[in-house]
Specification:
alpha/beta; 580 residues; 12% strand; 20 strands; 2 domains; single chain; four-stranded mixed β-sheet; 22 helices; Rossmann fold; 44% helix; seven-stranded parallel β-sheet
Length: 580
Amino acid sequence: MLNGKTILIIGGYGMVGRAICRELIHHQPETLIITSLLESEAKEAVAALKKEFPETDTKLLPHWGNIFVRASLKDTPRAEVLSNPEYRIQLYRDVLDSFTPETLESSFLAQLVMGTTPEYPGVKPHIIIDAVNTATALAYQDIYNSAAEVHDLYEKAEKVWEENERAVVERLLISLYTPQLVRHVQVLNEAMQRAGTQAYLKIGTSGTGGMGLNIPYTHGEEKPSRVLLSKAAMAGAHTSLLFLMGRTPGGPAVKEIKPTAAITWKNIGYGAIKKRGRAIALHDCPPEAGIKLTPGTHFDLNERPTAPAENGVLESVFIDTGENGLFSLNEYTAITSLGQMEAVTPEDIAFNVIAELRGLNTGKDVIAALDGAVLGPSYRAGVLRHRAIAYAKHLADEHDVPSVAFEILGPPKMSKLLFEAYLLKQMYRTMEAVAQVDIAQLMQDVEALARGNADIRRQAVSIGIPILMPDGETLLAVNRGKGEHRWERTAWDVTPDAIDHWAATEWIDLRRKNMERWQERFRTILDEIAALPDPLENASSQFGRTMTDPATWALDPDINLGEVAGWIFSTEEQGMRMKG
């Protein structure tokens, strides 16, 4: 079925897209059209395939641009579209007006499918493999902040709106998820019918890495996160629309593979830590420059001057997870730990994609079996996880860096927990030592470490995770010139409740009550370890963490930051996945 075909891979630069391309070449298609958002990405993907398969007869064609907009805007950054009145109105009409032939024919996605792009006229794909995370692309448009801006405008509705205020409303309207998804599917369906596309296979998402409403990873708001739930809602809506598309006469065969685990990994290395393509600048906040959190005052970090970056950038050991960015060793350990998202490799996904396109029944086509077709954590990822962690640990030792957290993954609570555990490990090394030390001594030690260790302060402050000192009033934080977290983006009143809220979710909290909580955590874990059976007497698979499992803290007395964070998410947050 694949030999001699023209195949369009949307998102061919990504981890999954590349794995699929490598697998496809073995089946000798005539042409692979490999797309990505950026020109450099598409060309890099093609160059890598040509280098890996120098003797292939398959034509490899790069293409690039935003598939969710018309061709004339495909290379325009979204921020520029939103700031340009002409572009905003055009996008509004393309998404929310009636679906017309002009809407279809001007769409970059439709031109790719129908073979009407200027670059490759007449090249129509027989098969389309869509490896773009559509739910993420549509859901992460900050609709909630846009809605809040519009609400603020209504507070002064008695006056005529000015141009900048109209822009606020327009941004909200063109950030609505469902109309964008519906228009995307309309364009795709009509274009494939016109082009005579034979098969369409979507790499979908559950939106939560296979976890439920108890998913512990949030973006600073309530739990469950409305941002994550919006993404999951889009993922489910997309599957429903594809299900309808598969039942539409005249259309292609429609399939969806839906991974329900963290997709990892692309590379493991040491170097500059980049977020959205830019290296994270280094900042520091010595204790004497800390911000006093005086109850009754108004906190507005933006009123402070932007702190100048220090020389150099944040460098550490990383595990590159593709679209999700760079993970630290311990972020990766936590998110793939037993009961969390766990993991599946791009090659697992590619195998199922190729098998389905060849007509084999994998049982993983969601459209054919909505209830049982999810692709869960894989044996391969579980086996290789130990190798990845071991190699990253080797690099961390070689470069003498802790690789604690980068805050690229998203949830600041994970970064907060990892840094708190790291500080305790630096002082006491083992859980037993932390659990047994007098709390007054612990408080003295943790304050001395925060004051004396500028390296760890720089790492935490530079990624937007401030340190609340033991006095509960001194916050080691700087204005980084970019408000990524709500506490640093907008002004708020300093109250005990507000301090407790941010300290519980986004700040390294060195206050006594939090240190006591850490002691209690470690005592609970130690009790669990003590209750484990002797493996010589009972080595049943019913025990997820055993004395002989090298992935857990039981074998190594040193505090395992990632495993501890995973335990907290599973136990305290009740965020453990039901199916492994």
